[in-house]
Amino acid sequence: MYAERPSRLPGAVVWTNTTGGSGEGRVLPDGCMDLLWNDGRLLVAGPDTRAYITEGGRTTWAGVRLFPGTAPALLGVPAHELRDRRVDLVDLWPVAEVRRLRGRIEAAADLVTALEDVALERAASAESSDPLLRHVVTALDSGRPVAATADELGLGARQLHRRCLNAFGYGPKTLARILRLQRALALARGGTAFAETAVRAGYADQAHLARDVRELAGVPLGELLGRRGG
To answer: Do 109 and 53 sit in the same domain of this protein?
Structure first.
């Protein structure tokens, strides 16, 4: 069972997920990175460019999903180094520090809140993320073209790509594609017909939507949502 709530860390979401052991799970690209807790381990979920398939088995996860572009400043590592990976936090932070944090979370009355506290404290001591990044996310999520977004920021294409690579793990075109997928899924999950979803989310047509979903999610849209037809 999955549940989430807004985090006290601006723009972030705190979530828990208990899997039932009934086969593989599918985590879709969303432009975010997560600080994770699972069975006594602290991990980081890097930015995905395709669906991440989780193993079957009954287990409980907790996570803090960080707003797109903010994780590298908190973690101290460029996002592209973690692209399509799940990494143990001891590979990024000092072993003694991670051991201390694990013990603190395990001893807490509410491990989810304790995990959120770790993210809050780390964010408070980290350098501020690039202030242009939020504008990039807002513009691309609204369907603005990449070239127009770069012009609005006074950046060349290469400058924007470099900043996006460090912040999001991939270039602005990939980020725009992933954000468009998330817009489409929100519409389709709300009951919007697939053809209308394609138009409203910014696809050329329903066939374009179908291709993108299959490439990014690994399955057709109807299968992903448990729906037949559009």
So the answer is: yes
